[in-house]
Write a structure and sequence with these properties.
By secondary structure, this protein is α+β, with helices and mostly antiparallel strands. Helices cover 20% and strands 38% of the residues. The mean pLDDT is 89.
Length: 892
């Protein structure tokens, strides 16, 4: 039957969500509510908001995790076991226990199972037990053979031994065979859990479940055991509210109730991510965690809502539903479907969009895209060809008439004498489409346009004419928007939803006023009455609000066409995009999940991460904060909101959000109080923190500023006095300088006369040297002609040559030259370091404005030789051909 296809809510956590690899070998829950999983990548931790991955020292696969006392999380993998403990800032610190064990086989084994007891912990491979008493190094225990997973049943620790049966671990570390377990010798025992009537259920891989009762061990006498033998049992856990969950390798999870009857069979075709179950956990809220060969799923078996998911896409999007004549009908975008056997069957002739199913006086009416039909047990009958049977309501105080809104206005149906409904007439005077309509207590008809606009109409008594109508647009009477409006009747009142804000229309002095019914920061669309309250949606979930509390369901309705149908007997159906959900309100009120405590995990600043204690003191450099929150609410993402009380400013208030972090940027100095609450029922948390003043605004800094100001004023006074003194001294100095300038001018005039005289003397000396050299040259020529005494003549010639070289004369000349032309040679060599001493002599003679003919005897060369030297000097000085060398030297 169809009910077999309905399953409890399932929340998926694929590998991309938790950030690990596919396989998850074990599951446990810590004292704070955090759920941990042993994964191929390491140990996963989920606090209800975010996943973390913690790796073993060598990055081993984590095969086993188990929660210990406090917040210790025991962990085991290849050649390694120990425990994790949380630190104060949201991290986990690992403590190895295996490093204290001296056992050669540990280097070759994996820890596949951990059993936590009150006074000790057992770390188990398939050949060895390591017992840790919370105080000393672990003790190595040798079981009587290869073992499967040890389980605590009552006060006994039972240990399946392959090929032998079941043994009990005694306090003296010995093992005692459990009488009656001989039938298990040839079976691979996968689990042992408390069964019904004080029995122990022993699950085997290929032979199904055995009941161990006293000294008797026999197969579980249940028809389901035949299916389980073919499913390869792997894990089992008792459920908090009674019953059991049995995980298999081949066929997913079987959920049994207290009477050992199958409630649900969960597998890949109806909701699980994978059929291979590697781990099971029933948490403290009664939720079932399923660790699989690919991913992790959360099942909420005790919620009062079950889901039918159209996995193959056969029925389409559900827009309407009705329970009529004991059968469930679904109106979808593909037609009208009726519950039949194990699924739903399309009723012939109903293909197309169904907008409404309405039971009226023993008949089921179907508002369809192509008209309106009366639904029979096996067929449908057309009542109207008027397209778009959108919404049908009973006319107040006139039970024989129904009013229907269509694509082209309003029509009236009348009940015949035989009790059947038939089309009566159109309502004249109004032809606009109305997606929803409803009568208010005054008899006025309200309707919302499918796209834009809200109408209020007044009909004639005979329902044949619209006497008047008013169109409300944005801004009219406080209507905040006029697009995509919705209409509902809650508590007998017309509720208009605009921009996810519920509004009630009230008459004030003959004027319509739209009054909001919910705070602006709480987006809501009110849907319909339900029991003692009403349903509303925020777009992501559905809530039932009563005068006492609010219950939230993890279901998302069809956007823009949200509909919840009353099926009768306190049962409601939620129309979904891929199926439906069925809900019993009474079960919802009595099976409300427990509260999930809110945790402020840490406060992170640009400089450090701090524990989120009650009070935090921060420097001014830490005025950008990130506060992380969590709440172990697992069947749906928890939502948070917060309020920040600020100094000298109004409080900063957030809306409900699934964002589990609070970002506070560029906070000014002062004392703040942050109040955070979650929608999981936990008590709000308060965090007080202070942002200190920057160092340049502290009282010490202000005192330093005052001292510096006083010092600056004192210095200014001293500087002013010194400036006046310097000004007086400057005036006196200027007077002395003026007198000195007059003396210097006189000295310069005297020096100029002396320089002129020295130049004249230098010129005379040069001319005298010229005449001497000319004379000596002439004398040498004469002496060379007379060779009467060759020896004497040669001596005379050498003496004359020595005078002609004139090095002594040149030194005298150079000294006199430097007195007249100060630093001429230094400046020339600094500008042209490549000049030779001969070049400097030529430059000196040119500085005296001597001609080449006058220079030749001074250099003891010919006039042509002088011209050659002038040419080479010009090249070294880099002068162009048209430049005058003598002028250049004179001006240098």
């Amino acid at each position: 039957m169809a009910a077999a296809q309905e399953v409890p809510p399932i929340r998926h956590f694929p590998p991309r969500t938790y950030g690990g690899q596919n396989q998850n070998w074990s599951l446990t829950q810590g004292a704070s509510g955090t759920v941990y999983a042993g994964n191929n990548s390491g140990m996963l931790a989920f606090d209800g908001v975010r996943w973390h991955l913690w790796r073993l020292p060598e990055g081993q696969t984590v095969r086993a995790v188990a929660a210990g006392p406090g917040e210790r999380i025991f962990c085991g993998g290849f050649a390694e076991f120990g425990y994790w403990q949380p630190d104060s800032v949201g991290g986990m610190v690992y403590h190895s226990l295996s490093q204290h064990v001296r056992a050669e086989q540990l280097e070759r084994e994996e820890i596949w199972h951990i059993l936590v007891c009150e006074t000790f912990v057992l770390f188990q491979s398939f050949s060895t037990l390591y017992k840790y008493d919370y105080k000393h190094a672990p003790t190595v225990l040798r079981p009587p053979g290869a073992i499967m997973f040890a389980q605590k049943v009552g006060q006994r620790v039972l240990l399946p031994v392959i090929g032998r049966g079941v043994y009990e671990l005694l306090p003296d570390h010995t093992f005692r065979f459990v009488s009656g377990t001989e039938p298990l010798a040839n079976a691979t025992v996968q689990f042992m859990v408390p069964g019904s009537d004080s029995a122990v259920w022993v699950g085997t891989a290929e032979r199904g479940i055995f009941e161990l009762r006293g000294d008797s061990c026999r197969p579980w006498p249940h028809p389901l055991n035949t299916v389980l033998r073919k499913s390869q049992l792997n894990r089992a856990v008792p459920l908090r509210e009674g019953g059991w969950a049995i995980g298999t390798i081949l066929q997913g999870v079987f959920l049994l109730d207290k009477r050992q009857q199958l409630r649900f069979h969960l597998h890949r075709e109806n909701g699980l991510q994978d059929n291979t179950v590697l781990a099971l956990l029933c948490d403290r809220s009664g939720h079932l965690w399923v660790g699989m060969d690919r991913g992790i799923d959360l099942v909420a078996p005790n919620t009062p809502v079950v889901f039918y998911t159209d996995q193959g896409g056969k029925i389409g999007v559900v827009y309407a539903a009705a329970l009529w004549s004991g059968r469930l009908y679904l109106g979808t975008n593909r037609g009208l479907f009726v519950q039949q056997g194990q699924g739903f069957q399309l009723m012939e002739g109903s293909q197309g969009q169904v907008w409404e199913l309405r039971a009226a006086d023993g008949q089921l009416l179907c508002g369809h895209n192509s008209g309106t039909f009366a639904v029979g047990v096996r067929s449908i009958r057309r009542l109207s060809n008027i397209t778009g049977g959108w919404c049908t309501v009973r006319v107040p105080h006139r039970d024989a008439f129904l009013l229907q809104s269509t694509y082209t206005g309003l029509v009236v149906y009348e009940r015949t004498a035989k009790g059947e409904w038939q089309l009566s007439h159109r309502v004249e005077g109004f032809s606009d489409p109305l997606r929803k309509i409803a009568f208010d207590r005054n008899g006025s008809l309200w309707g919302v346009h499918p796209n834009r606009g809200l109408y209020r109409l007044r009909l004639s008594t005979d329902l044949r004419q619209v006497l008047e109508y008013r169109l409300f647009r944005r801004g009219d009477s406080g209507l905040p928007a006029d697009y995509a409006l919705d209409l509902a009747v809650v508590g007998g009142q017309i509720i208009i939803t605009a921009q996810m804000t519920p509004l009630q229309a009230t008459d004030s002095a003959g004027q319509v006023v739209f009054r909001p019914l919910a705070p602006p920061n709480l987006p809501q669309k009110w849907l319909c009455d339900a029991g003692e309250g009403f349903f509303f949606t925020d777009g992501s979930s559905v809530s039932w609000q009563t005068p006492a509390s609010i219950y939230t369901l993890p279901a998302q309705l069809v956007p823009g066409y949200e509909r919840i149908e009353f099926l009768g007997a306190d049962e409601y159906l939620l129309c979904l995009e891929d199926g439906y959900a069925r809900l019993r309100l009474q079960h919802l009120a009595t099976n409300r999940p427990g509260t999930a405590p809110l945790h402020l995990q840490y406060v992170e600043t640009p400089l450090r991460r701090l524990p989120a204690s009650h009070s935090v003191d921060l420097s001014h450099a830490e005025n950008d904060l990130r506060i992380a929150m969590s709440a172990p609410q697992f069947d749906r993402p928890p939502r948070f909101r917060w309020q920040l009380e600020r100094p000298d400013a109004s409080p900063l208030v957030s809306t409900w959000s699934e964002t589990a972090e609070i970002m506070l940027d560029d906070l000014s100095p002062g004392t703040y109080r942050l109040r955070v609450e979650a929608d999981t029922g936990g008590a709000p948390k308060t965090l007080d923190f202070r942002i200190r003043l920057p160092w340049y605004r502290t009282p010490a800094a202000m005192g330093a500023y005052a001292a510096l100001l006083a010092l600056a004023l004192w210095l200014f006074e001293k500087i002013s006095q010194a400036r006046l003194l310097r000004q007086r001294q400057r005036l006196e100095a200027e007077k002395q300088q003026e007198l000195a300038r007059q003396r210097i001018a006189a000295e310069r005039e005297r020096f100029a006369l002396e320089l002129l005289n020295k130049n004249r003397e230098l010129s005379n000396a040069a001319l005298s040297l010229v005449r001497k050299n000319e004379m000596l040259q002439h004398l040498r020529e004469r002496l060379q002609q007379a060779y009467h005494d060759p020896n004497a003549l040669r001596k005379l010639v050498r003496e004359i040559d020595r005078h002609l070289e004139g090095e002594h004369d040149w030194a005298l000349f150079e000294a006199a030259f430097n007195q007249v032309h100060d630093a001429f040679f230094k400046r020339l060599m600094a500008a042209y370091p490549q000049l030779t001493p001969g070049d400097l002599r030529l430059a000196a003679y040119l500085k005296l404005n001597l001609s080449s003919k006058e220079i030749a005897p001074l250099l003891n060369i010919s006039v042509r030789g002088v011209e050659n030297k002038r040419y080479r000097l010009r090249k070294k000085l880099g002068l162009p051909e048209e430049a005058n060398l003598t002028e250049f030297i004179l001006n240098f």
